[in-house]
Design brief:
The chain has about 170 residues and is mainly alpha-helical. It has helices spanning about 1-5, 25-30, 35-45, 65-70, 75-90, 95-140, 145-160, and strands at about 10-20, 50-55. A two-stranded antiparallel sheet has the order 1-2.
Amino acid sequence: VATLKKYEELIEFIHFSDQFVPNLDLDEASKDDTAAQAAAAEALKSAQRVLIFKFCLPPRLRFTNRAQMDKLVPLMRMVLYSIDRVKKCRLSREAKEHAAKNRVKMSEEVSKLTHQQRQERAQVRREEKIRAEKERYMAEEDPEKARKLQEKALQREMKKKNPKMKTAILRRG
């Protein structure tokens, strides 16, 4: 902890995970492409245990000078200590349950997000289709034909809006 506080300007992030999925592109998996969704599901199954440390080294830091290299020694010791410490660490039952709940919650959020993105893309496609149809009958030179196309479009729209009625024939026997 002292090393973290002392060198916090050099540490960009530290990530410990027992279910890390590298290069999982959720935007790609959220498309209607079933191959991308299958690849994302397969990637989730092949999750790995990882410790990722990313440091922000000053741009003018040259590693030819021994004194400058010695500045990084405590960080490298922290990395090695963390590896040894995490290997021996075991989560309690409560911590495992808490992590499982968080993972379920996160997967639900991801599925909601992908569903929302799919809905938005579908809405855009519907709007494009309507716009193209309107442009088609506006571009029609024959006014009678344009009027008929417009009436057909209006009838389709009314049919979609009106509730479907089912008629039932009751027989007494």
